[in-house]
Amino acid sequence: MPDPTLTEEPLQFGEGGRLFGILTLPSASPGTARELPVFVFLSAGALHRVGPARLHVRLARELARMGFSSLRVDLAGTGDSPPRPGLTNQESVAADGKEIVGVLDSRLGELPLVLAGLCSGADNAIRLTPGQPRVIGMVLLDPICFPDDGFEARAAVQKYMNPVRYIAWLQRRFKASEMPREEKEGNDDSADYLAIRDLPTREQLRAAFVSLRQRGGRALSVFTQYALPYYNQSGQLDRILGVDGYRQSCTELFWPRAEHTYPLELHRLRLIEEITTWARGYIGP
Amino acid sequence: MIEPFFFGPGDEQLFATYHPPATGHARLLTVICPPLFSEYMRTQLVLRELAITLADRGQHVLRFDYRGTGDSFGDLAEVAISDWLEDILLAIREGRDLSGSTMVQLVGVRAGALLACKAAGASDDVQRVVLWDPVPDGAQYLQILRRVQVAILKRNRYLSRVERRQVMREQDGHCLPARMAEEFRSLDERAYAGVSTHKLHVVSTSPAAGFSVQGVSLDEAQFACNWETPTEDQVLPQPVLERLTACLTLP
Q1: pLDDT 10s digits, A138-184
Q2: CA-to-CA distance for A60 and A45, rounded, in angstroms?
Q3: Which of A1, A17, A48 minimises the CB distance to B44?
Q4: Rounded to two decimals, what is the model's pTM?
Q5: Which chain B residue is nearest to residue A80, measuring alpha carbons?
Q6: B1 contacts in chain A (CB < 8 Å)
Q7: Contact B118, B41 (CB under 8 A)
Q8: What is the ipTM of this complex?
Q9: Least crowded by CB within 10 Å, which of A233, A270, B143, B213?
């Protein structure tokens, strides 16, 4: 295999070999007796296990160089994993979760797990955590959150006090005045991910963090500009959850300059560094 | 049932997925040369569907990722176009060894079309080359990547001056090494002209774009792929899938 510090193995597992994933294993763990958690990268939306711009692949390999095993998986209905007929999304994800734990048990033994996901991947990590006692960590990229008391006031200030917004408005007006009508009408190519996500409820979100806290777990949540319709200040998730000890075990970052799927390499590098630094917390001194 | 595996030289293995034929005694192997960067992500599902369809129709099919992309090993910063051309030849060889096929056809999508034709289109081992929305040439492809990058930057109004200088060096959100950019510029339409016209089929979603080689079978598929939109949303172009399948299952 190419990199002496890691090996990779494609897996087809679960009922009928339905689920597809790639297991990344470090060639050597750091010289401690501690068992490091296994990172599980859940596919996001319709994207496959590779992740946006290969994010999951790069994270898996960086983490392996630090001594962490990982599995990047196509949940049923994404990538190379066919859908489960007759099940709702939540039922399908729950079934996937059991099979993921099963294959990791058989390959690596009963190690603790960190669930990582972007967008619907984060939603699924939140849903799976309470029912999977071995999950001791979550890495959530643009998870759901709910407005707190100051949300609307902050949103108004951000909206009306931002000069870039007015410049952009003027530019759009200028451009629109020169644009043919058909092009004006069909100009928005972006998908509204929020509208199509099967979002966890507030209770499900809280249950995930409460479970984690009870297990002595940790979480890293990163919010980008995508979250602005419902999140606009670092610490907001802490406030709406109201979970004791949140600040001791959870890191919450707000990156309003970054986009949802990190299309710029600049932002991806920053994210990879943030996640690997956070992961180092499991290795200790 | 698909068969995923890593193959190739020990220091930079490639990832591939083999789709065995649904029926026995298949002699034809189809190797799918995917597009690059965001277009790779956008077409993952439809190319998987194409592979399944062709396998159902009795073909051996191999999908693979170029080094430094997808699940293959390698760092994009250290990859050259010549590496990707080599990867295509490796994939063909691996597919033939796996399947025992005596006949090979290639599917090339966008920049994958240019690479497929350059690498193997002229080879006697390849009986047919089907292209989906081939990029005109390497230099124009770099311009397309540049335009996509500018579109991404328009959405990112809050970058600092230092950050903006950094991202101006990216192309479609990726840092292409200087050598790769040079090699793209030298990849011109002669890559297509090097393939016999009787072997070449083009499926196009924008017929106005034309194709540089005259006398080539050109099929139009009614679907707006919007390749220059800065997104990784999946395209699910049923008309394209139908036209590609038709071209790839011609007797």
Answers
A1: 999 999 999 999 999 999 988 777 666 666 667 667 666 655 554 44
A2: 19
A3: A48
A4: 0.93
A5: B48
A6: 12, 17
A7: no
A8: 0.94
A9: B143
